[in-house]
Amino acid sequence: MPWPRLPGDSAVADMHEESKAAANGCGKIRSGAQNGAALLALMEKTGYSMVQQNGQRKFGGPPPGWEGPPPPRGCEVFVGKIPRDMYEDELVPVFERAGKIYELRLMMEFSGENRGYAFVMYTTKEEAQLAIKILNNYEIRPGKFIGVCVSLDNCRLFIGAIPKDKKKEEILNEMKKVTEGVVDVIVYPNATDKTKNRGFAFVEYESHRAAAMARRRLIPGTFQPWGHTIQVDWADPEKVVDEETMQRVKVLYVRNLMISTTEDKIKAEFNKFKPGVVERVKKLRDYAFVHFFHREDAVAAMSIMNGKCIDGASIEVTLAKPVNKESSWKQYFNGQISPSSENLLGFPNKEDGTQKSLGKPASLSVRLNGQHSPSPPEVERSTYPIFPGIKLTPISMYSLKLSHFSSAVMHLDYFCHKNSWAPPEYCLYSTTSQDGKILLVYKVLISSIADDSQSYFMPEKLCTTVEDAKELAAQFTLLHLAPEQAYITLLSLNAAWWDSKANCTPYLV
After folding, report:
1. 378-421, pLDDT tens digit by residue?
2. 250/270 Cα distance (integer angstroms)
């Protein structure tokens, strides 16, 4: 049976299929004709159409008999680690187990192999969540495990280096003047001066296409609002947590607090509507996590306290988004750690032998390039030989992508440069433990933000090596400088490294 010739296919694909030594699920080598026959049989069986264009092959979209608009956001999953010689005839039956497939997009190489990943859109969000639950880390072939996570079209841009005296309405109007499809602008007040913004904003667009066109329009140098050169990049959509998990959350995330507001003050304010309901409070700079004994009290407190003033600051209160501890997706991607009040970097504590954590905000937005934002790819830590005659080109580290950096120290330097700040200065301090060990901690000074009350940052734990102390200080600084937009990807890159470091044993000061 002939290969069903799809737009964008070439004879090269068939020739490559004939020669490659890739096996199918039965361990046999399939030729191009056999692949074609399998795909044609799949189309005849399901009634779905299949077309290839722009480096991807689309199965369905819409499926037979579909009426109405496409499924809403949240119905699509990202699939990674697909064997390169696996195609729709094997993938569709697997993903149909979770529900009705609206569309499957398999990324293709010119050679005819797939590129190792695909996007599967279901007809409902519940089906997409079920696919993640039952197919993430699924052994699709002997010894071959796929990764499945939610996929969202990115409709949000990060805009940096905004004058701090600009209000939300001014930023919104300016963005609407030069870009189309603006839905909203998200601006956070300065931690120490609530009349100012933090120097950045998030602009939400009606579609990914509108955001992509806006990003192109706002490229630094081509547009200077208020006479300033701004920074523009993709912002990752907020973490999506399934409804079943959110129904169990009993922790509130409180934003826009005053620096001077204490944990005791926050606990007292949240206990006012019903005494004794708050278990504990963890505050970091201008945000905090309020833990309740019971979920119903947390939900009631959220409704009552959102928009209230504490020490003169109008606060925002939402449910904290928990970590999916059962997910093994990060094993492959070494991906971003999901925001939660108690999941930063685990350190063994010498006092009780348990894991302690620094904590971080529940809603972080990571600036990532591209339409879809699955967890970032694993950073390759390898060396390659320099062959005679190889051409080496000078390059600035600031022209690289975040995926090229594997330490918090480099991320902090990069972050300061992107915000037109002076490079961070590291001041080393030491003390001696009870058993005679020299313990170290760095204070990080960023002189360019001296207009704020806090321009230096120092973690509350000590390390036994200079390298570990510097890395911890850089991570601590990043979290406090930019909790809403920060480079949380670097934390996952280092989490396993920290856990494996026998010589890094932070002590409580």
Report:
1. 445 567 777 787 888 888 887 777 777 778 888 888 888 777 67
2. 13
